[in-house]
Write a structure and sequence with these properties.
288 residues; alpha/beta; 33% helix; 20% strand
């Protein structure tokens, strides 16, 4: 059930973010740069003044350029976006607090991060991580080389939450991950990282109601009605996303996850290129 104070909760994250001076710092990373693009390390302050890092790659030539904003998956290391993307788009890959390169003073534990502070929504680590995602989006909107009308958000729930709070993005490529129907899905598996929810509840059974309430603020079904931009929804199995699909306010292309880097990658690249510039993507040579 959607909490009555859902909007107030997310407005609180915005308020915390607005109270921080971001103080962005860009430093070229020569080892990552090529004749086609320049890659920078980006540092900026997020919620509670925490300094986060992101890779920021800008194509050579005259902008402004469309953007692919990669929101991180669950894990300690974030990789730089693909070479081919960097040739055509501004590419951003965030390392949220706790991940490598954003792990001072807080280094996340894997497993462990998924339930850190989950007893209450205000203390849940993903409240601050959501702020990290929004802070990078705000940085993008401030840059002259960025075409703010052509930003694609790419990832799991971090991308979806950002799309719900930053409606000016052009497109959302979303693969449901850890916060969609979390406890029900966790009850049907013993695989990590969803098993982290089961581990937590076994260790503190009395907290189930508080965990359910916390997760309700992050449930994608409650965010989808705020998303009007074109969305590609990648689902793992038939019927997996029925409720979520119906909740989106904007147009949704609903497609199956094909478990193929080539097939999923070509479909993703073509969809993003269509939404950002009505063009053709630059694909790896062995994919063409």
């Amino acid at each position: 059930m959607k909490p009555k104070d859902f909007d107030q909760f997310w407005a609180g994250i915005e308020s915390d973010l607005n109270s921080v001076v971001p103080e962005p710092e860009l430093k070229e990373l020569p080892i990552r740069s090529k004749p086609q693009f320049t890659v920078y390390g980006l540092w900026l302050s997020s919620v509670k003044g925490y300094r986060i890092f992101a890779y920021y790659s800008v194509p050579k030539g005259e902008g402004p350029f469309p953007v692919i904003y990669h929101l991180p998956n669950y894990g300690s290391v974030v990789h730089i976006p693909p070479f081919e993307e960097r040739c055509k788009y501004i590419c951003v890959a965030l390392c949220h607090r706790g991940q490598r390169l954003s792990d001072e003073p807080f280094a996340a534990a894997y497993p462990g991060l998924l339930t850190l502070g989950i007893e209450a929504a205000e203390s849940y680590i993903y409240r601050e991580i959501a702020g990290d995602c929004l802070s990078v989006m705000d940085f993008l909107k401030s840059r002259e080389e960025v075409d703010g009308r052509r930003i694609c958000l790419l990832g799991g729930e971090l991308a979806l939450w950002t799309a719900a709070r930053r409606s000016e993005a052009a497109a959302l490529h979303y693969t449901p991950a850890l916060h969609y129907n979390s406890l029900k899905r966790a009850s049907q598996t013993s695989n990590y990282p969803l098993e982290e929810f089961n581990d937590h509840l076994r260790g503190s059974a009395s907290s189930r109601l508080s965990v359910e309430k916390t997760l309700s603020y992050f449930e994608p079904v409650h965010h989808a009605p705020q998303i009007k931009m074109p969305t590609m929804l990648v689902e793992d199995s038939v019927g997996f996303c029925d409720a979520l699909f119906e909740a989106f306010a904007g147009p949704v292309d609903r497609v199956p996850f094909q478990h193929s880097s080539y097939r999923d990658g070509v479909r993703q690249a073509n969809w993003i290129a269509d939404k950002l510039d009505n063009g053709q993507p630059i694909l790896p040579a062995h994919w063409c």
